[in-house]
Design goal:
Layout lengths: L9 H14 L11 H7 L5 E8 L1 H4 L16 E7 L1 H7 L13 H25 L14 H24 L26 H5 L10 H13 L7 H6 L1 H28 L19 H18 L44 H4 L2 H10 L8 H12 L3 H7 L20
Parallel strand pairs: 1-2
Helix pairs in contact: 5-6, 5-11, 6-8, 6-10, 6-11, 8-10, 14-15
Length: 409
């Protein structure tokens, strides 16, 4: 089997992938057989970009959570230069089982599709309802409109991949990889349907109506069709509903936090809350209806949408006096990383600073003593100890990395 990489610019990647798919010579265990990954990689306006990050810190259990970040405004997926995804991009013909120890390849590729669907939603909205997402000044008048669009994009990313596709058809029917984590971002499984219908006989996932119920959940934190008494009587329903309610609450809160930070302080912290997002305005309903139809066509009918490239975003947190490493890419921070002191700027987002700082160092080149003590720096939020442990390990950073990335997952 020839070796042919996909880690190229979009045009070359599409030419390569179209030829591979046309010849149909890849093994059943290759992720090239996953249709939504094909859609993402065949999108001419979606870039695949590498960051100076070593994912081995995550693989070996030093922390959990995103180490590469994302930003749906940038029309790109970001991945670690030392990762199983980097290996897969270099040779997508490989048997995915050889790279999927710990399910890391499955997680990273499904996350790529998830990030693509975020950006896909932004582009559907921009094509049909130009609103300046990423460019217009963020004000108190339009803040909640932008909050709604991002919440809509998250609902689309989970609904499209996890509910409409992977809860109905197990990932292993597309890719013979023996995965047990499909779908990735929800606890719902098709075999729960009979249990849930004992409490709501009309409940169904595989139709357009579920789009509105799921959007309502993410915007308000309210489950339509189920009550607390139902959840008390069904552990399966509680397991699913509790997770979705928790995620929807965090989504509203962190979306407002992120957009507030990008507003350069124009939206004050006292306006950031877990409160429901207004989504029943005529314009919001029209947006959602167009996105719903496009998503159904993309996922359920397999018809790829021709969407324009988003204009280059101007929203940035650069210049903000307080650095929030939930939303700032340490690899693009223009100051000397070793100039950070242990103060409120770091302490407020220390865990995100810690994950970024540690993963910006080559895992194999880090001395065993440093690996053994790094958890102490996290426990005590000790920036000086971090610097000392990694003083002889090169800091990884690639040219032209984006400053604004979202690291909460």
């Amino acid at each position: 089997m020839e070796k042919c990489g996909l880690e190229t610019d979009a045009n070359q990647r599409i030419v390569t992938l179209e030829r591979i798919l046309r010849e149909n010579q890849f093994p059943k265990s290759s992720f090239l057989g996953y249709p939504l990954l094909q859609h993402a990689l065949l999108d001419p306006h979606f870039q695949i970009k590498k960051l100076g990050v070593d994912a081995n810190w995550l693989y070996y259990g030093f922390f959990e959570g995103a180490v590469s970040g994302y930003n749906p405004l940038n029309s790109a997926c970001y991945y670690s230069q030392n990762s199983v995804l980097e290996t897969w991009f270099a040779n997508p013909f490989v048997d995915s089982r050889d790279l999927n120890e710990g399910e890391h390849l499955v997680y990273e590729l499904l996350s790529l599709v998830h990030d693509w669907l975020h950006n896909w939603t932004y582009r559907v909205v921009e094509q049909n309802f130009p609103c300046g997402m990423g460019r217009a000044e963020i004000t108190s008048d339009n803040f909640e409109d932008f909050v709604f669009i991002h919440i809509l994009s998250e609902a689309v990313a989970r609904l499209g991949q996890d509910y409409w596709l992977l809860s109905e058809r197990d990932l292993n029917t597309f890719v013979d990889v023996g995965s047990i984590i499909s779908p990735l971002f929800t606890n719902y499984r098709k075999h729960y349907l009979g249990e849930f219908r004992k409490f709501n006989p009309d409940f169904t996932v595989q139709d357009k109506g579920f789009f509105w119920k799921y959007l309502h959940l993410n915007c308000t934190g309210e489950f339509e069709g189920f009550g607390k008494g139902d959840m008390d009587r069904s552990p399966a329903l509680l397991h699913w509903a509790h997770h979705e309610l928790e995620i929807s609450d965090q989504l509203r809160f962190y979306t407002r936090q992120w957009l507030s930070y990008l507003s350069q302080g124009k939206i004050k912290p006292d306006k950031i809350s877990h409160a429901p997002c207004e989504y029943l305005t005529t314009r919001h309903k029209e947006m959602a209806a167009v996105v719903q139809e496009a998503l159904w066509s993309e996922i359920m009918l397999g018809k790829r949408q021709a969407l324009p490239l988003l204009p280059t975003p101007s929203w940035t947190a650069q210049g903000m006096p307080e650095i929030d490493f939930r939303f700032v890419n340490l690899g693009a921070w223009k100051q000397d990383v070793h100039s950070i002191e242990k103060d409120v700027r770091v302490t407020d987002s220390f865990d995100f600073f810690y994950r970024q700082f540690v993963s910006r160092h080559d895992f194999m080149a880090t001395p065993p003593q440093a690996k053994g003590l790094v958890h102490k720096a996290r426990q005590y939020k000790d920036v000086a100890l971090l610097y000392y442990l990694f003083k002889d390990v090169p800091f990884l950073s690639l040219p032209d990395e984006p400053y604004d990335l979202y690291f909460i997952n």
